[in-house]
Amino acid sequence: LDLDTAKEELEEFIPHVREMSDSSIRKMAGRDLTRFKHFKKQGIAIKFGRFSQKENDQIKKNIKEFLSLTGIENAEKLLFTSRYPEEKETINRLKAEFLFCGKIAEGIPRPWRLIYYRARKIFDPNNYKGRYTKEEKEKLKKYYAIHGNDWKKISEMMSRSNLSVAMKYSEIKSGNYVIFSYCLILAINYGPWTKEETQKLMHAVEDVIRKRSKLEAEKSSSEKSRRNLSIDREKLYQKLPWTEIETKVGTRYWRQCKQKWNSILTSKMTKGQQLYKGTKGLQAKINLIKRLYEMKVEDANEVNWEELSNAIGDVPRAYVQAKFYKLKVSCVPLWQRKTFPEIIDYLYEEKLPELEEKL
């Protein structure tokens, strides 16, 4: 189908389809339109929202049949192929050869991408591990002190899902800081940072980085690492324990501390240059969109933001993430309803040509 026809035909089933990117519409036309028409003939409406038990069972049945058909060992390899880099090429070839997209969606009157995300949630072995033991909670606090908000890394170390460890730490933190938070509300500052607050922030960051470096040095058998606690530049902005820093500063929320620290670092690393203004700013946005599009990832958690910092300049990863967020919010209509690939497709197809013309 041509794009206009695809939009017209899909609109019957997806009312907001014209707000989606052209790439997403083409994918939906290929994966979903025939299925939608088939369900319509049967008098079955296309569904959104919470999956029923019957639909969950159908997804499990579809996955089981596809595994039998292809000989792929298990659902984790099928749905989280990137976890198995040595087998990735073979698995992807089998998925294409045996029409994975169609098979996983059989008998389920929903858009394919929603079915796919639901399947990933059902079959992620790290999702259903029961209550956290006392030992696990202590490990979680220890890993957070070292790795900060790097939930992907912490989830791998604890064999729990990203969401699970993030929520559990939030629960632990809430219990630990409930009294402190009440006091903080009374003294919180929302205005410009004072010189005293900035000094407190810098000392707080120094304290947590030195503590982390000592822990890492103690683990190492290298005499050199015991002798020399020099700090790699990456430690200045990667996964700092912001709730701990919030406590040390005393008059700012953790998010304010994080934003201020990234502002200080960016200024230092770029020697005060304005990387995101004028011609340099246009080029930075163009590079960022192109690099994200080339990555072809399904989720923001899979993006290597560290690698992407080169697209803008020598800056912290949080700076790049903040610029992407601003780009997404200001340029992509109804971005909250879109998946990460749909957002990237829209930026690439609609915003990129406009930026290149301005440049």
TrEMBL record:
Q: What is this protein called?
A: Transcription termination factor 1
Q: Could you state a single Gene Ontology molecular function term?
A: chromatin binding
GO terms (BP aspect)? termination of RNA polymerase I transcription
Q: Which domain of life is it from?
A: Eukaryota
What InterPro entries does the record point to? Homeodomain-like_sf, SANT/Myb, TTF1-like
According to the entry, every stretch annotated as the Myb-like domain falls at 124-173, 191-265
Q: Which Pfam families match?
A: Myb_DNA-bind_6 (PF13921)
What organism, scientifically named, is this protein from?
Tinamus guttatus (White-throated tinamou)
Question: What GO terms fall under cellular component here?
Answer: nucleolus
